[in-house]
Amino acid sequence: MSDTLIKICGLSTPETLDAAVDAGATHVGLVHFEPSPRHVSLEDAAKLRRRVPETVKVVLLLVNAQPEPTERAFRTVRPDIIQFHGNETPEWLALVKKYLDVEIWKAVGLQDAGTLERSRKYHGIAHRLLFDAPAQSLPGGNGTGFDWSLIADQPPEVPWGLAGGLDPANVAEAIRVTGAPLVDVSSGVESAPGIKDVDRIEAFCKAVRGA
Length: 211
Hints:
Layout: E1 5-8, H1 14-23, E2 27-31, H2 42-51, E3 57-62, H3 67-77, E4 81-84, H4 90-99, E5 103-109, H5 113-118, E6 128-132, H6 149-153, E7 160-162, H7 171-178, E8 182-185, E9 190-192, E10 195-196, H8 198-209
Helix pairs in contact: 1-8
């Protein structure tokens, strides 16, 4: 029985949010990034946030947001965690950490062992690193994976999570290979880009718990 943490990202409707909570997700992700098919306005994100029980953590995903929009997003939604999914520097994350009372995650597109080494600059600043497939037209949610052995060979020394190309069929194997303490899925539980599938959400959570 796996005690791996489960994040369902890119939720945008009350029904799918409730389904993720009911299925046993430990984290639910709301994307505030207009180019994404999973984008939700701050007002809608705040409404969804209010549905989430205290036992589940709310993650707000931002991409290269400037200081004022970052603060406004935090004040409006009041997430437990902000996940930075762009080219944010360690210096910028340190400022956010100083001024906002929020846990900070940094997504890193993992191309090779060098990327893993370069991600060390976020150690001690980000509370968790999230290893994803390298960015394409969108920074995440592309449904593509990466070579899990990169992490299996050199496990990070900080809290981390695994994202990129995970789905109900492969997540147990991903956990087995990498020992991921947290798994993050978005497009892998969708029927179309941005459209979450309640049955797939349930199947994903069940696969993680059985891993």
